[in-house]
Design a protein that fits this description.
Blueprint: E1 5-9, E2 15-20, H1 24-29, E3 34-38
Antiparallel strand pairs: 1-2, 2-3
């Protein structure tokens, strides 16, 4: 299984690791879907 891991830092200084799931809806609407792990408190 291929993983597409992305590290995201929000404007509120939270950091997330996302295993992004690709689908047509998320690509058309510029939405990030996937399994997440919060790396910051």
């Amino acid at each position: 299984m291929k993983q597409n891991l992305i590290k995201i830092t929000t404007t509120f200084h939270n950091t997330w690791l996302v295993d992004q799931k690709k689908d047509l809806f998320s690509e058309e609407n510029n939405i990030l879907f996937g399994d997440t792990l919060r790396l910051s408190i």
